[in-house]
Every structure is written in structure tokens, then in C-alpha cells.
Design goal:
The chain is an alpha/beta fold and about 140 residues long. The protein has helices at about 15-25, 40-45, 95-110, and strands at about 10-15, 55-60, 70-75, 85-90, 115, 130-135, 140-144. The longest helix is centred in the C-terminal third of the chain and has 17 residues, at about 95-110.
């Protein structure tokens, strides 16, 4: 019998809180409550040794359905294309011009949050339209 395992998606980044808050806005995720004994995440962060402060942040799906996203500070910058990326599903069930309009509207919203519009890939009779983008630290993702 196969069991379904929970998983989280981990991002290596330079500024975990900044990237996490961007993805909260993209996906409608929220920052979970701070650990027991702390009123805020800032209070918790200040309790850490200086070299650990600001080193990690997370966000969660408020419905509990989607995976937890974890962001960890790493010393090296992004150097090559991601081998894995997120597809943000905003056009599910839509086709043609209606799908493209939904994608373009979401693209404009995300650009205002700091994302970069890489290009628009138009429907070609085999694949529907999608829009490759970069998050606030240059990680690739698509809206489709």
C-alpha cells in the first residue's frame, strides 16, 4: 500500500524573508506563527546567534493543503538555470484568449511585486500559453 508523504519545497537564497514574503503574495500563503515563547519572528530571530539571524524563513498554505515553503540563506549566488521550478496554476481550465488574458493579468500583478517577465510562450496547437518568469532573486518559475 502506497502512502502519501508530505513535503516542503526549499529555496536557497540570499535574503530568506524577502523571498518568502514574495512567494506569500504570489500563492496566497501566510507566515506561520513564531515558535512557542516568542511574540514575533523578529523576537525569535534576535534570540539566535548573530551568524544565524536572518538565515531562514518559511511560509505555509493557510488551508493546509499545499506544501510548506522553506527559504534558507546560502553564501553562493544563483549561477545556472534551476533544474526544478514551480508552475503557478492561474489558467487551469481556460484556453485561448481567455487563458492568455488570465496569465497576462497575473504576470502584471507579479511584476509589480518584483518578479521579472522573461517571455510569453503562446499556444501552438500542442501546448497552451504560459509565461516564464523570475522571482525577486532570479529563480525561474512559470505561470500557466
Amino acid at each position: 500500500m502506497t502512502t502519501i508523504k508530505q513535503f516542503q519545497v526549499t529555496f536557497d537564497c540570499a535574503d530568506p524573508e524577502r523571498v518568502a514574503r514574495f512567494w506569500c503574495e504570489v500563492l496566497g500563503y501566510v507566515v506561520p506563527p513564531p515558535p512557542e515563547g516568542f511574540t514575533t519572528w523578529d523576537d525569535f530571530d534576535r534570540s539566535l546567534p548573530p551568524e544565524r539571524q536572518g538565515s531562514a524563513f518559511a511560509c505555509v498554505d493557510p488551508s493546509g493543503v499545499g506544501p510548506r515553503l522553506f527559504f534558507q540563506r546560502v553564501p553562493e549566488g544563483k549561477a545556472v538555470k534551476n533544474r526544478l521550478h514551480l508552475d503557478v496554476r492561474v489558467g487551469t481550465g481556460l484556453v485561448g484568449e481567455e487563458r492568455l488574458a488570465a496569465l497576462e493579468a497575473e504576470c502584471a500583478r507579479l511584476v509589480a511585486l518584483g518578479a521579472v517577465h522573461v517571455q510569453t510562450l503562446y499556444a501552438d496547437g500542442y501546448d497552451e500559453s504560459c509565461i516564464p518568469m523570475l522571482d525577486v532573486e532570479g529563480n525561474e518559475f512559470c505561470i500557466d
